[in-house]
Write a structure and sequence with these properties.
Elements: H1 2-34, E1 40-42, E2 54-55, E3 65-67, E4 72-75, E5 85-87, E6 91-94, E7 106-108, E8 113-115, E9 120-123, E10 126-128, E11 133-135, E12 149-152, E13 164-167, E14 174-176, E15 190-193, E16 200-201, E17 205-207, E18 213-215, H2 219-247
Parallel strand pairs: 2-4, 3-5, 4-6, 5-7, 6-8, 7-10, 8-11, 9-12, 11-13, 12-14, 13-15
Antiparallel strand pairs: 1-3, 15-16, 17-18
Length: about 250
């Protein structure tokens, strides 16, 4: 009888231990399901997220998303969170088109980088900190790939810092801001580069019709183009004059 009671007690204890282990595993899975990538957390819950290179899931909720730390993190899902995107450090790389919520504001901190990866993205207003970077692709040695197109809802240039850089820009890329910028914008505020920050394209930036941010050509480049065109124009003029004389 005593042996039977001990065996029953042991089985109950083991059952409780098994239930606790199973519960612990389920809780761990639940925590992992809410965590996404290193340096990013949902502002609504203030939850830190573990290391990962790419996150293909969908981040939702009423909170915002913050990318922190020096690492490069890639998002590929069609995210729906409503609290905006803040990149305070490192690089947030878009691994597909339409990754960021269409109406969410985007803030780039000083020295931080938003890499478009050769995709098409639509978002809310864009605020740029001093020395922040918009990379049309993904850093040094990036293959040209497809054209990058970024459509922001407004040009909040009054909050932009200085020394802003646009990397890996090609002629087919577009940075659209949906309207005229604020009066505080200056041409030297943004510099375009054809690579990762060494080969300048032009001497600054300007807003074209419709709110597209484009590089301003160097004066020497314009003079060079005019110098090449002048002999052609003169030759065409001489040809036209000869044809006119022949018709007389």
């Amino acid at each position: 009888m005593q042996q039977s009671t001990k065996e029953t007690t042991r089985k109950k204890a083991q059952q409780k231990a098994d239930e606790w282990e199973s519960l612990s595993k389920e809780r761990a899975k639940a925590r992992q399901a809410h965590k996404v990538i290193a340096g990013i957390y949902r502002a609504a819950h203030k939850e830190e997220l573990p290391d990962a290179t790419t996150f293909a899931g969908i981040i939702g909720g009423t909170g915002g998303l913050i990318k922190d730390g020096a690492s490069t993190q890639t998002l590929t899902g069609a995210n729906t969170y409503s609290g905006g995107t803040s990149i305070t450090g490192g690089t947030l790389l878009l691994g597909a088109s339409n990754v960021l919520p269409d109406s969410g504001a985007v803030t780039l901190g000083s020295g931080a980088r938003l890499a478009l990866g050769g995709f098409v993205e639509t978002a809310g207003t864009l605020t740029l900190g001093a020395s922040s970077i918009i990379d049309m692709r993904n850093g040094a040695g990036s293959a040209p790939g497809s054209a990058s197109v970024a459509n922001f809802s407004g040009a909040n240039t009054s909050a932009w810092g200085s020394g802003i850089q646009v990397w890996n820009w090609l002629g087919g890329d577009h940075l659209n801001f949906g309207g005229s910028p604020t009066a505080s914008f200056t041409s030297s505020q943004v510099q375009f580069y054809s690579d990762a920050g060494t080969m300048l394209v032009g001497s600054g930036a300007a807003f074209a019709s419709g709110g597209e941010l484009v590089p301003v050509p160097e004066a020497s480049t314009l003079l060079g183009v005019l110098g090449l065109m002048a002999p052609l124009a003169w030759r065409e003029r001489r040809h036209w004059m000869r044809c006119r004389e022949a018709r007389r």
